[in-house]
Structure prediction request, 202 residues.
Amino acid sequence: MQTNNTALFFLEDDCIRAFGQETGCTLLQQAEELYQDLCQHGNDRGNHVIEEHLQSRLFPLMSYYKALLKHGIQEDQALLLVRETAHKAAIDKKAEMQKLGSLPFAYLIFRMGVKRHMKNHFPPEGWQTEWVRCDCQEIHFNLHRCLYWDVTKQFGCPELCCVFCESDDISFSGLAPKISFLRNGTLGSGADCCDFHFIKAQ
Prediction:
């Protein structure tokens, strides 16, 4: 797995720092093999955007998690290690959100582009999006189906989905204080949908 070509470019350093050179390299090799297997059996639904999500975000993290479990790491500890790695990528995304959040009329800019962004980056082949409101005070949409939830279930690790959900929380916190991000539940935590609320500061 060429980690420098994925969203988790620091995976190699994290793994070796946590387990040492020898064990870390063994885990990385196992993760590479698992990654190739996941890519072989994954379904991109004929959509290049879905393919990008699978190969650059979902499968690198999933292969690392599965390698940890295969090595005998307990599930809660494996989730903790994967969470630490994923959160670093989310912090990078938060920095991008902070740039947007610092602009004059940040909410207006965000609102004008959000539907196009969702259509282009979270297509119906992977997500079922219900738009509830998108007005001058709040953007609210519900996801009734999510690629990340579907794929983590498909490959036997639904508990991993929460890590991706947490990354949303971290990333979108960068929009504050001009835009507040709120969510009451996620598919991964057992809710009927993932509800996304972006609220303009008063």
